[in-house]
Amino acid sequence: MAFTAEEWAVLSGTLRLKAPSERDHARSLGARSLLREETCAQVLDRLAPIIGSPSRRVTASLLAKRISFLATGACLYAMSVFDKGLALSLDNAVIEYGHDAGRWTSSMPLERLRASRYPAGQRDAWREEIVGTLFAGLLQPLWQTFHGVTGLPRRILWENTAVRVYSLYEKRMANLDDEAIRARCAADFDWLLRQAPPAMFGLDYNPLGHFHRPPTPLDDGRRSIRFRRTCCFYYQATEPAQYCSTCPLLRPRKKR
């Protein structure tokens, strides 16, 4: 099954899904290739001076944030909004790492772009397959390799992933016009947070539920922010130092 022209415009636009013919061959490799520690180290070392990173650990965190955006954005948006499945697997996904003029330019090419659908009454099983392939099949092995090569805590890598998923469902999908589609998105998000078993992530806990803490009210009384539990180290790759809006280093201290 193919995507409609309107659907493809969304996926290939801000969500950066791409056909294999559009791959940036000079700055990409098949996802499975990145599991080789020597290859992973070479990619990180090549990328570090381009993004201003002082260490492999910082480079791995920032690259993981970009991969998380590209992988979860296209896959989960297609699933929840268009009710169509994408196979984000080690053998189908291509990892790009282009970064030019101070910003990421990378996309997510897939070798096979054909969308899947489910038989009547089988959406739950179909959803489990898509989510398990994305998280346990693709991201967990990549994060394990990043951890092995750099020592970066796995919790940071998984929170990098979680915050992308939260933004996708709480901001991008929550503003859709179609009420029925919004309801389906909300149901999928609730399942991801509260019901998806740890096996779907290749872990002994559900990282999406684990990091989804209540927002912290700010002093102005008009806003609240869900501050991260871990720091992604973005500030270490900027001069002068810049911080993510949800950085735990910016979290207000509790008044005694």
UniProtKB/TrEMBL annotation:
InterPro entries: FhuF_C, IucA/IucC-like_C. Residues 228-249 form the Ferric siderophore reductase C-terminal domain. This is Siderophore-iron reductase, Fe-S cluster protein. Pfam families: FhuF (PF06276), FhuF_C (PF11575). Residues 62-181 form the Aerobactin siderophore biosynthesis IucA/IucC-like C-terminal domain. GO terms for molecular function: 2 iron, 2 sulfur cluster binding; catalytic activity.
